[in-house]
Automatic annotation (TrEMBL):
The keyword Acetylation does not apply. GO terms for molecular function: DNA-3-methyladenine glycosylase activity; metal ion binding. This is DNA-3-methyladenine glycosylase I. It comes from Weissella bombi. Zn(2+) binds at residues 5, 19, 176, 180. The keyword Zinc applies. Keywords: Metal-binding, Zinc.
């Protein structure tokens, strides 16, 4: 039996598949990075299992996370999203997603969002060596720096905890536990 990070132990197969096939695998695709940033923002205050269960609904509701389309969402689209029971209907998070899409579209075109995010580590993955999720911090110095920079650029819902989770999910930080087969 595969040893996984302990945060997957009480999860269903969807959570284990996410861990095995996505979480912590470095991605340099701006669209995928935007998706992860968006999902992490919606996860704030909730469990990741809830987000995974609704992920397909998020993909449909947010045009497959096409930030160029999302950047043009208007008030009618916000109202439509607020009535979509398949997603988390938090207006602040919906508006933040649109805001973040606008920033990526205007300030970071042509995959430059990826270049920007990866520049904080010189394009290298940071590898931590934690034995359990209890020892993994809620955020680290890198997340604090990236969070402050994202906010300076105008991004919303990118506090240090959300940013740290985003950095883990996107593979910029490898926080697979030392006994995990993905380490």
């Amino acid at each position: 039996m595969k040893q996984r990070c302990d945060w997957t132990q009480n999860g269903n197969q969807l959570l284990k598949d996410y861990h095995d096939n996505e979480w912590g695998i470095p991605t340099t695709e701006s669209k995928q990075l935007f998706e992860l940033l968006t999902l992490e923002a919606f996860q704030s205050g909730l469990s990741w299992q809830i987000i995974l269960n609704k992920r397909e609904n998020f993909e449909k509701a947010f045009d497959e996370f096409d930030f160029e389309k999302i950047a043009h969402y208007d008030d009618d689209k916000i109202i439509s999203l607020m009535h979509n029971s398949g997603i988390i209907r938090n207006k602040r998070k919906i508006v933040a997603t649109i805001n973040n899409a606008k920033i990526i579209q205007t300030k970071f075109p042509n995959n430059r969002f990826s270049e920007y995010i990866w520049s904080f580590t010189g394009t290298h993955t940071i590898r931590h060596h934690y034995a359990s999720s209890a020892l993994t911090p809620k955020y680290d110095q890198l997340a604090l720096i990236v969070s402050k920079n994202l906010k300076k650029e105008g991004f919303a819902f990118t506090g240090p905890v959300t940013t740290y989770s985003f950095l883990q999910a996107s593979g910029i930080i490898n926080d697979h536990q030392i006994n995990c087969f993905k380490k």
